[in-house]
Amino acid sequence: MRPEDVLAGVLTLAQVEETAASIAAMQEPDGAIPWTVGQHTDVWNHVESAMALLVGGQVEAAERAYDWTVATQRPDGSWPMKIVAGEIEDHSGETNMSAYLAVGVWHHWLIRRDEEFVRRMWPTVRRGLDWVVGMQLRFGGIAWSQEWADGSPAKVNADALLAGSSSIYQALRAGVALADLLDDPQPEWELTGGRLGHALREHRDLFLDKSEFSMDWYYPVLGGAVRGDAARELIDSRWDTFVEAGLGIRCVSRNPWVTGAETCELVLALDAIGDRQRALQLLADMQHLRAEDGKYWTGYVFPEGVNWPGEHTTYTAAAVILAVDALSQLTAGGDIMRGTSLAADFDELALECGCASADRVARIS
Question: Contact at 8 Å (CB) between 286 and 298?
Answer without folding.
Answer: no
